């Protein structure tokens, strides 16, 4: 028995999520979001979501590292 997650089809739907540090990721649209993450409203195939993230996440520095002290 494998502990690996089941593979998902290319047509699965995903949502773009972001955390308080303004770090982006993709998440299965039909699953509950993990604690600390919120949906951005962008959805699509995994690749469409990754393309969206590439467009909007232009500064990979976590928000806490960018904030003035």
What does the model show?
The chain has 69 residues and is an alpha+beta fold. The chain has a domain at 14-58: Rubredoxin-like (Alpha-Beta Complex). It is 22% helix and 28% strand. It is built from 2 helices and 3 strands, in the order E-E-E-H-H. Strands 2-1-3 form a 3-stranded antiparallel β-sheet. Strand 1 and strand 2 (24-28) form a beta hairpin. The chain is flat, with a radius of gyration of 14 Å. The protein starts with 13 loop residues before the first strand and ends with a helix. The mean pLDDT is 88.
Distance between the termini: 50 Å
What is the rounded Rg? 14 Å
CATH class wording of the domain at 14-58: Alpha Beta
Low-confidence stretches: none
What is the annotated CATH architecture of the domain at 14-58?
Answer: Alpha-Beta Complex
Secondary-structure class: alpha+beta
Q: What percentage of residues falls in helices of 4 or more residues?
A: 10-25%
Kindly identify the CATH topology of the domain at 14-58. Rubredoxin-like
Explain briefly what this protein structure is.
This is MbtH family NRPS accessory protein. The protein has 69 residues and is of the alpha+beta class. It is built from two helices and three strands.
Key descriptive features of the protein:
69 residues; alpha+beta; Rubredoxin-like; 22% helix; 28% strand; MLP_fam; MbtH-like_sf; MbtH family NRPS accessory protein
Secondary-structure blueprint:
Layout: E1 14-19, E2 24-28, E3 37-44, H1 46-56, H2 63-66
Antiparallel strand pairs: 1-2, 1-3
């Amino acid at each position: 028995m494998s502990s690996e997650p089941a593979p998902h089809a290319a047509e699965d739907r995903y949502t773009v999520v972001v955390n308080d540090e303004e770090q982006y990721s993709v998440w299965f649209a039909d699953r509950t979001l993990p604690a600390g993450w919120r949906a951005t409203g962008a959805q699509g195939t995994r690749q469409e979501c990754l393309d969206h993230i590439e467009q909007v996440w232009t500064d990979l520095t976590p928000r806490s590292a960018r904030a003035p002290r």
